[in-house]
Amino acid sequence: MRLVEWFREVRRRAQERDERRGYAVDKKRVAIAYLTETVIVAASLWGAWLFAQMYGHDDWRQIQLMLLAPIGYAVIEYCRVPLALSTRTHGSRLVKMLALVGVLCAAGVTVKSMSQLGEVMFRPRLFDVVHAAEDLQHAEGVRATFADQIAVADALVTSRRAEFERAEERAKSDSIQLATLPKEQCTPISGVTRDGRPYKGQSCRTDPRIVPMRDNLKTTVAARDDARKLLEEAVTGRSHLNITIADNTVSDAKVKYREAVLHSQLHSFTGMVFGVAATDVTDAQIHRFLRIFVFLPALFVSFASTLIAFTAVHRLKPKTIDLHPASFDYLLRYQSILNEAVQKVHDSHKQPETGRPAMAPGD
Fold first, then answer.
1. Which range of residues forms the domain containing residue 236?
2. Number of domains comprising the chain
3. Domain-embedded: residue 210
4. If DSSP states are collapsed to H, E and C, what string results for 32-55?
């Protein structure tokens, strides 16, 4: 029973206090506002810690330096709720304006922290898209290089085939020309030697063009054989170049890139906003969309607890007191006595200082 009475007394005193100052504060709303700030601060500090670990290069001193500013931002976060309450409860307009400026400044700090967390939230999927795009570009570059090599090999095969065909034509032409030359002309001869013995035989004459043309034919045939070997080497080298593997690599890279884009929620939303396919979204469009998708939610989060604190203050209307009809006579008598006293004080100030009579104790 004593505990119940104590609670009643506490509530009665709190009610009297609220009535005297003309407003009441909803403690539940204030607690929710501080709880919201606590969650924001915890998320900001945890995100700053992960960010420092990721980009601190395992240097503990750099990690500590990267955490100093977020700790200061966390302190400012907790200042926003009391500043918001001061804008509703303080009696001085100047203090209210200063408190409002403080609320806006603290909200700016929250926007910065939440924007960083929002951007970091999409970063892993953006990394996947970037890596997939790099792999696709590398595969396309390898395929382009491979295609250039094939084009060079095809040109080499065509050139050497033409050389072989020209050598073959020269060899055929030389053979035909050599075949058309007249054969050796042989005529019978007979006579007597110096020692008186008779002899018989043949005298043959060879065309003087045959020997040089035979040598030329040998040279042409050798050149043709060399051209055939070079052609065979070029054909063998071309047969080793197969663009199918490069095409398959490019196709796999395209599939992985499309999958990475489809898993990126940011690319999908950006594509819906700009009316293009997710795979056709550019980096500039993504950064323009981030201003809306990251900045505005951060702005809303920054004012959430502030609005809760604003609505936690309720102005109280003054209570009216019902008067008994007989009490009006007392009020009229009090008003007349008060008027007479004011008139006497006013008249006493109008009299000269020396000639003013002394007032009796009962006056």
1. 147-242
2. 1
3. yes
4. HHHHHHHHHHHHHHHHHHHHHHHH
Q: How far apart are CA 223 and CA 164, in angstroms?
A: 8
Query: Does the residue 56 lie in any domain?
Result: no
Q: Three-state SS for 13?
A: helix
Q: Give dist(CA 294, CA 119) in Å, integer.
A: 7
Q: What is the pLDDT along the chain (363 residues), one digit of tens a residue?
A: 577 777 677 777 767 776 677 777 888 888 998 998 899 889 889 988 988 888 888 888 888 888 888 888 888 888 888 888 888 888 788 988 998 898 888 888 888 888 888 878 877 888 888 888 889 899 989 889 888 988 999 999 999 899 888 888 888 887 887 777 777 667 777 677 777 777 777 666 666 777 777 778 788 888 888 888 988 888 888 888 888 888 889 899 988 888 888 888 788 888 888 888 888 888 888 888 887 778 888 888 888 888 888 888 877 776 666 666 666 666 677 777 887 777 777 777 665 554 445 444 444
- pTM value > 0.70: no
Question: Would 289 be classed as within a structural domain?
Answer: no
- Report residue 192: phi and psi, to 5°: -125, 135
Query: Does residue 185 fall inside a structural domain?
Result: yes
8 Å CB contact between 47 and 116: yes
